[in-house]
Design goal:
It holds the Pfam family C2. The chain is mostly beta strands. The protein has one helix at residues 93-102; strands at residues 22-30, 36-45, 54-60, 67-73, 81-84, 116-124, 139-145, 148-151, 162-171, 177-186, 189-200. The protein starts with 21 loop residues before the first strand and ends with a strand.
């Protein structure tokens, strides 16, 4: 019930400078659980923004009244990684020892924002639902922690995909929940939902 909403949400996207990506933003209005209406969209050329500073942008919505006010910062990504199982970041005993030292009790108050990090090995899925007429699916896996999101590659025509990827997230809130969702890639259409599991960090 607001024409001037304030969200004050922060989202972290893992941007690689060799890509010429645009940041696409859409604003939607929700009447009820079933009806949604697009109120407008805008685009930001990430490559045109100065790095290592907060860029305050007022973005008019295309073909619709209104604008969005955003702070966008382009900075080196720390603490986030995607790797193959054979080169797992925690596989090196020396690195494990350094991490144990970094998070020992005597260093607890050195950096209050450095809570720790979560490493997730996404190995495989078994007996997924068939989403295609061929009796197969094209599954990929999405991991979300807070407002961080990473995903695997797609394994085509397979109900028992193996991804064998290792994902590392910085932890910003120990009460966050890791959500792991499996989707079926469907070309230009939105992906189909194949299943989901939620794991509270406090249970790990």
């Amino acid at each position: 019930k607001s024409a001037n909403p304030q969200w004050r949400e922060q989202f972290d996207f893992h941007y690689f400078s060799d890509r010429k990506d645009m940041l696409d933003i859409e604003v939607w209005r929700k009447d009820n659980k079933k009806h949604e209406e697009l109120l407008g969209r805008c685009h930001v050329d990430i490559t045109a923004l100065p790095e290592k500073q907060s860029n305050c942008l007022e973005l008019p919505l295309e073909k619709h009244p209104g604008s969005l006010l955003m702070l966008i910062s382009v900075a080196p990504c720390t603490g986030v990684s995607i790797s193959d199982l054979c080169v797992c970041p925690l596989g090196d005993p020396n690195e494990r020892q350094q991490i144990a030292q970094r998070y020992c009790i005597k260093n607890s108050f050195r950096d209050m924002k450095d809570i720790g990090f979560l490493q997730v090995k996404v190995l495989k899925a078994v007996d997924l639902m068939a989403a295609d007429f061929s009796g197969k699916s094209d599954p990929f896996c999405v991991l979300e922690l807070g407002n961080d999101m990473l995903q695997t590659h797609t394994v085509y025509k397979n109900l028992n995909p193996e991804w064998n990827k290792v994902f590392t997230f910085p932890i910003k809130d120990i009460h966050d929940v890791l959500e792991v969702t499996v989707f079926d890639e469907d070309g230009d259409k939105p992906p189909d939902f194949l299943g989901k599991v939620a794991i509270p960090l406090l249970s790990v």
